[in-house]
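Suppose you are handed only these lines of text.
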Amino acid sequence: MLIRDLFGQKKRTLSFEVFPPVREGNLESLFKTVAELKELKPDFISVTYGAGGGTRDKTIEIASRVKNEFGSEALAHLTCVAATRDDIARIVEDMKEQNIENILALRGDPPKGEEKFVRPAGGFGFANELVSFIRGLNGFCIGVAGYPEGHPEASSFEDDLKNLKRKVDAGADFIVTQLFFNNDDFYRFRDRALALKIDVPIIPGIFPILNYKQVLRITELCGAKIPSALGEKLCWLKDKPEDVEKYGIEYAQGQAYDLIRNEVHGLHICTMNQSRAARKIVRELGLTA
Ligand SMILES: Cc1cc2nc3c(=O)[nH]c(=O)nc-3n(C[C@H](O)[C@H](O)[C@H](O)COP(=O)(O)OP(=O)(O)OC[C@H]3O[C@@H](n4cnc5c(N)ncnc54)[C@H](O)[C@@H]3O)c2cc1C
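From them, the structure of the protein bound to flavin-adenine dinucleotide can be written out as follows.
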C-alpha cells in the first residue's frame, strides 16, 4: 500500500524505524523486534539505509521481509551516497521486485572522514534530484526528510525550508522529521512550512532516550539540541541506566501526547531496534488500532 493513501483514511499514522544491524548475527534479533512491533499495529515500519559499507544491501532485504513475511507496510530509506543514477535505478528496481512501494529519498551524510557531501560522479547532489528521478520511475510513494531545527549545513532555517519545498515540488508525498526534543521547534517548522505552501503531511520523528551516551552521540551526529532541563536531568541520572531509560521514555510519551493534541499527521518512533519504548508509548497513550 502507498503510504500517501493512508493519510486520507486515518486521522494519524503510527510508524516505527529500525536499522540494519552491523553484525549479521543480530539480524534474527531484529526480526524478533519487528514481530513485537507488529503487535502494536503500525501503519508502516521504516528501514534506514547504511551510511556506507556492508549494511546497505540489508535495507532491501529487511524491508522486503517486513512487508512480505510480517505483512507490515515497509518504507525503505535510500540515499544518494556513492551511487550513480544507474546504481539508484537498479536499487529501485530491486525494491519494486520485492514489492516495496514506499521510499524515503535522502541525500545522505558525507561519507566518514569527509566534511562536505560531494555529488558522486554520475549521481545526485541533493535529495530533490533523487525525488525527481524516482518520481519518473512511476508507482512509488516518496517521503523526504525535514528538519525542525534546520539542517546543520543549511545557510539558514528559511533556506532549508525552501529546499524542503523543492523536494515536495519534485514529487514528495510526505515528510518525516529529524528527531527533536522541544515540540515548539516542530510547531514553528510546521507553521513556516505551511506558510511556504508545503502542504504534504509532516510526521514528527520521536526518539525515546534509552541510553545516556547513545543520545549524546546521536544528537551530535544529527545536530538536534537537547534542551537544558532535559540535559541536566539526564546528566543527574546518567549513572543509573534504568532511570535514564524510564525518564527517556516518559519524556517521549509527553512529547507524543502533546503532538497528538496538536493534530499531527502521524507519529514516527525511532526504536533503536528494541520494542520496549515503542510498546510503552503506544500502550500508555492508547494508540494501538
Ligand atoms: C527522517 C530521517 C531519516 C534519515 N534516514 C537516513 C538513512 O536511512 N541513512 C542515512 O545515511 N541518513 C539518513 N538521514 C540523515 C540524512 O541523510 C542527512 O540529514 C543528510 O545530511 C541530508 O539528507 P537530506 O535528504 O535531508 O538532504 P537534502 O534535502 O538534499 O539537504 C541537504 C542540505 O542541502 C541543502 N539543499 C537541499 N537541496 C538543495 C538544493 N537544491 N540546492 C542547494 N542546497 C540544497 C539543504 O538545505 C540541506 O542543508 C535521515 C534523516 C532524517 C531526518
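What can we learn from it? The pocket of flavin-adenine dinucleotide is lined by residues 48-49, 51, 77, 79, 104, 106-109, 126-128, 145, 151, 153-154, 159-160, 163, 166-167, 176, 178, 205 (CB under 6 Å). The CA atoms of residues 219 and 225 lie 7 Å apart.
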